[in-house]
């Protein structure tokens, strides 16, 4: 087995608090046992494994044509447009190694997972931003590729714009069909990962013995869990109570997305219990956050002010306070203190949105009202996506 890298240690602050005193206590009660961290030792090799198939595609195409032209080629291929012979061969070779309709794929579960994501409306985007994304900064290691690709200099506006665009597209109705924009977004993201990894290793002083390979398989799994289990925990905390079928659908949805992104099937959880165990093993062997973590958290905190919408700066500053309130409501004061996020009184206006979310949840009493909530939530999310694209996609 590979030696333990610097990043691999028993967590004693942020994530330990989560499992011992935070929401994680309830998750472990649901699981019924505390996972053995000796199992995590067997996962260390995945810190040195990466998406070799994606990297080869990027080396064969994007590195030669340029990243923008490479993505145009992807779009043309998926639309079955005519491509130069050499390019088509590269794409044919890549997709011949991916079964995009595997036998285990369950269309009904996939549909339920995307519908849950949409019916949560604006609350889903709040949970993604202020819980999943911000909470991820509590690990120093998983965010190091962001530092090496200049995330602090670029700011959080572009990253959030891209994340919202990705998530809204893939969770749309039929968003994972081959001809859908969501399907293209998944492979665009996969090649962004590969392109970033190749260039970090080629052009920087990245220390793989310390941090593992950039955007490695185990960290990719952790990100997947952020979109599934952590997202689910956030929804429940904000007042949304999915059915068992919706929960199963959500994990099936992210199993398929994770598979398309290049995560080995054997690592992807089938259900909530498997996801709890996987999240415990990853979080409890993470080195605590560092100054980079605080800097990334601060950049995300200031994102509403740095964005181009609303036009009124006072309103943008108000939005920053509201997001800070959600940070404290969802993450808790302990995690926010570790990340250097101040408390807020003005932002408590966010309670109004939580109250409305819980009121709307009570109105879902049958399938008809559930379908209406899905339609309304999807429209809300698309409006937000369009605002980001119009004002912040620069």
UniProtKB/TrEMBL annotation:
Residue stretches making up the ER-bound oxygenase mpaB/mpaB'/Rubber oxygenase catalytic domain: 132-345
InterPro entries: Lcp-like, MPAB/Lcp_cat_dom
First and last residue of the signal peptide: none
Protein known as: DUF2236 domain-containing protein
